Amino acid sequence: MNATHDETEFVPDPLNPSGKPAGGRPGGSGSNKVAVLFIAAMLGALAVIYLMGAFGHRGDPPVDNIPWQISLATGREMASQTGRPIFVDFTQKNCPPCEAMKFEVFPDPEVSTLLDERFVPVRIDLTRPGEEAMQAAQQFGIWGTPTLVVLDTQGREIGRMAQYVNAEQLAAWLRQYTPNPPAATTPQATSNDSPTTPESSPNNPS
After folding, report:
1. pLDDT tens digit string along 139-184?
2. What pTM value is reported for the model?
3. Which end of the chain is more exposed for a tag (fewer CB within 10 A), N or C?
């Protein structure tokens, strides 16, 4: 009699015909990670292109007629002397929204007038910050730009916005932190200053 053997037929996996472990074939976890990283890099590049298109400006920004200070210490000293709050613009040159505000927002007549007449404006450039700029950024917890901060005359924070805003939005926000300038008053004429008429003049008796 011939011996019989219980044999099971091998059916190859159509996705893995070689029968090797999945981790060793092309398209395994290693390739997946590379693909994910490539897609993330592409999305990041597209985001940069979008921002440059949305906020892109070339050349120097227009003159905004705002007397920017570059030192927060100087700004505090001026605030204590004038009684005005401090407006701090934390910015960077490689930040498209920051550059857009320099072109579109700060040159606006209402914004520039508010900052010139009612605030002590300070601009801190974090592109290549020095020691003082780094200390200011750390003190106020600046993690991104543009960040706009309003300080009282003692240097205490009373307002913050960490985003791009247009000129109308910024002007409305600024007006919350400063009173309206006093209205001009017309001197009242007193009885001693009342003009005389020819009829009542001593030199012209009736």
Report:
1. 999 999 999 999 999 999 999 999 999 999 999 999 999 866 544 4
2. 0.62
3. N
The candidate with the shortest Cα–Cα distance to 82, out of 114, 120, 44, 113, is 120
Reported as half-sphere exposure (CB side, CA atoms, 13 A), residue 145 has a value of: 21
Nearest to 86 by CA among 116, 117, 120: 120
Measure the CA–CA gap between 124 and 112, rounded to whole angstroms.
17
**Which of 111, 132, 42 lies closest to 103 in space, CA to CA?**
111
The rounded Cα 58 to chain-centroid distance in angstroms is 19
- pLDDT per residue as tens digits for the range 36-75: 666 765 555 444 444 444 455 566 777 889 999 999 999 9
Residue 138: strand, helix, or coil: helix
| Residues, the chain | 206
Give the C-alpha separation, 85 to 168, whole Å: 20
Residue 170 three-state SS? helix
Element (H, E) at 48: helix 29-55
Write down the H helix ranges in 56-143. Answer: 72-82, 96-104, 109-118, 131-139
Positive/negative CA dihedral, 29, 33, 38, 42: positive
